[in-house]
Structure formats: C-alpha cells, structure tokens
Amino acid sequence: MQEPSCTGNGYVSQVASPTRERILDATLALVQERGFGGTTVTDIEELAGLSPGSGSFYRHFRSKEEAVREVYERELERAQRHRETFERGPVDDPPQALTRRITEQLDYMERIKPLITLLAREHGRFPDLEAKIGRSLLDQGITEEADHLTRDLHDHPAHGDPRALLAVVISAITGYHLARTFFGRSPADVTPERFASTLAELIITATLDPPDTPGDKTP
Amino acid sequence: MQEPSCTGNGYVSQVASPTRERILDATLALVQERGFGGTTVTDIEELAGLSPGSGSFYRHFRSKEEAVREVYERELERAQRHRETFERGPVDDPPQALTRRITEQLDYMERIKPLITLLAREHGRFPDLEAKIGRSLLDQGITEEADHLTRDLHDHPAHGDPRALLAVVISAITGYHLARTFFGRSPADVTPERFASTLAELIITATLDPPDTPGDKTP
DNA sequence: GTCTATAATCCGATAGAC
DNA sequence: GTCTATCGGATTATAGAC
C-alpha cells in the first residue's frame, strides 16, 4: 500500500525500491505457478499492485526476462543465506545427530522450494544461471554435507566408498522432497521423521558393519 | 517425409493417423523444451511437417490444451507398458539381484523421462492428469517394488520398518535420476553402477543386522 | 487433409502527460 | 514513479478453396 519511507534522510540509500521488490515477489509467485511463458507482464503488474496493462513494470526492469533473472539471483542468495544457518556444533549421539541432520536438510529443501521449483519448471531457459546455481547448490552443498557426515560419524569405521554413500544420502533426501512437491504426497506415505530416522539407521548400520564386497578379496 | 501408406486396404483401421501422431511427437518435444506457454501452435505445425501458421493443427485437435493432454495420456500408457517389461524371474544372489533391480529402475526412469519432465515443468497446470499419473506411478510402482524387494531379500531377516526402507530406496533412485536430469551431473559425480551397488549394499546390511532403536527396548 | 488468408485477441514494450 | 494510450508483432483459431 504505502512505502515505509526509508528515503527520508538518504541514509539507507542501498535499499531496493519497495515496488521493485514487490514486482520481484509477484514475478516469483507467477512464474512458479504458470511458468515463464505463461506469465504476462500485465499479470505481474496486477499482482504487484500496479495498474494492469500500464507499462509501469518497465520503469523497474528492461524486460520480463531481466526481472526473472533477478528473481533467480535473489533466490540463490536466499538459499545461500539459509545454508549458513546449518553451521551448528557437533552432536555426540550418532543416530540422533544423523536423524537431526537429515531432518534439517529436509527443512532446508522446503525453504529453498521456490528456487527448486524454478529450476524444475524453467529447466533449459537460462543455462548460465542453472550452471551457477548447480555449482552453488551441488558442489558447495555436497562438500559441506560430507564434512557434517564424517563429523557425525567420527567414531565409526569409515564406509568402503564414502563418496558413493554421500551420493545415496543426498539423492534420497532430494528425491523425498521432490516426490512430495510434485505429487503432494510422501513416497510410500512415510512421514519426514520416519524417513529421516530410517535413513540415519541405514547409514549407521553400513558404517558399523562394512561387509566385504563379494568377489573382492581384501588381504 | 511421406506416409508409409497403411491406409491402402482399410485393413488397419484402428491405427491413428500418422499426421496426428507426428503432431503429438512435436508437441511432446516442444513442451518438454519450452513448456506449455512457451510453445505455439505454429511451432508445433512446423515441427510436425505442416505449413507453419496454417491452422492444419486444428483439423486434428480442438486446441493446444487438448493435444497436450493427449500427450500426457500417451506417455502414461508408454510408461505402464515399460513397467511390464520388468516382470522377470527372481535371482538367487541377493547383492547382485538388488544391484540389478536398482539399475533397472534407473533405466526405467530414463525411459519415462519425457513423462517426468512434463510433470516437473507443467506441475499445477493439469491437476487431474497429475493425480492420475501420481496414482499410477507411485502407488502401482511402490507396491510392485515392495514385492520385488521382499522377493530379492527372501532369505534375509525383515527390516524393522520395511515401508520406510522402501520409501528411502525409491526416494534415492528418484533423486539420483532427477539430479542428473536437472543438473546434467550425477550427485557427487558417482556413476549409476557405483550408486546402485552402494544402495544395494546399504539395504542388505540393514536387513542383515537390524540394530535396536536407541530408547526402544524390545523384550 | 492441407493449404492460403484472415479475423480477433493478446502481449511485450514505448511515448508522453501528470 | 505511475498513469493513459497505443504501436507492432505474435498467437489462437476459423473460413473456404483445392
């Protein structure tokens, strides 16, 4: 409705215009719902509280594509900020620590859902942004998770192929989240808590009792 | 280029018109690539070998939406046919049987990739179709996979929470596939073979040595 | 069943008053 | 910075010849 007047003294000059921010919000919501091609500038203007059909949008962005690109960037920054929240101290009891770590990861995916939805829906339209986000989410996320995992399992024997174990864990968490998002139901109707504790138990059992690979005779 | 003339004797009367089929092919390819809103009927006509801009499309479908809906239905049928391929006999050696089962599941996801891409990209546009496909893929797939799993593990002790174990396995396979599709890379750069054998090993270890849940004192 | 041609609408983007 | 008004082009869909 009205701007909270932060331009009175010129002190907070770096703050983005509220209207601009509302346009980004509207763009995010609509592109998530209808996709880039299904969202019109008129729709965005209307949801942002501007007169639909007026070009007011264009006083803030050169084109629809520019606005959507900025939405991606903003969501990536948010995702990175959310990730920093997870830097908590180590916990002693491995099963509970792991279960909590996995639950945290599921919460994290829930929080960055907008970004994930954008990636899924507009896959292929902005390859540069996708590559950048992929690097940030996958590489950074994977190395950090690997650190957490080894820390949580500090007094367990190492797994035979820790990197593959990591891939399985990350895939499971990702897949559980996406199945819920896309179908509105959990796989096999299993709750997040049950999922987390089962996955944690799997990891711990595997690191407690690493079986010999059949056909692989270690001396 | 030219139709393989199967209308010569009227014998194969149930075969769909080749042009109609080409329109569906073109629609699938373009909607996968650009989304529903980003695909125009003119594009579809051009890719289907019709004169772009002519309404020839409309001699076969009432609207773009109708064609896309039919694409969904066709892909669902294909996915169901592909699933029937997996009904193979049981294998004796559990680790290898499980690894092969997981690899088969990954192959299956690769084959139904078009359907998965459609679901991801157009999520929310056709709720009825999504619900129908969700029921078919999730429910049917889950019960069948549960059967396979218990069969492959026939001489192993049961897991404490088989349904949750199933959810983890299905989530992992789904997540591995989707991460590859959306980012063009495997999670943690782990190959499908490595992924499958690691996941199989996890399952087997968990069913070989089911640990007591801490705080849960079973008599 | 495919074509040319076109109607009717929608959309992205701009110009200029306030 | 927002509005009214509008241009030019793209898009869905139809009409009618062949």
From TrEMBL, chains A, B:
One of its GO terms (molecular function) is transcription cis-regulatory region binding. Keywords: Coiled coil, DNA-binding. This is TetR/AcrR family transcriptional regulator. Residues 42-61 bind DNA. Residues 17-79 form the HTH tetR-type domain. The keyword 4Fe-4S does not apply. It comes from the Bacteria. The keyword Lipoprotein does not apply. InterPro entries: Homeodomain-like_sf, HTH-type_TetR-like_transc_reg, HTH_TetR. Residues 62-89 form a coiled coil. Pfam families: TetR_N. PROSITE patterns: HTH_TETR_2.
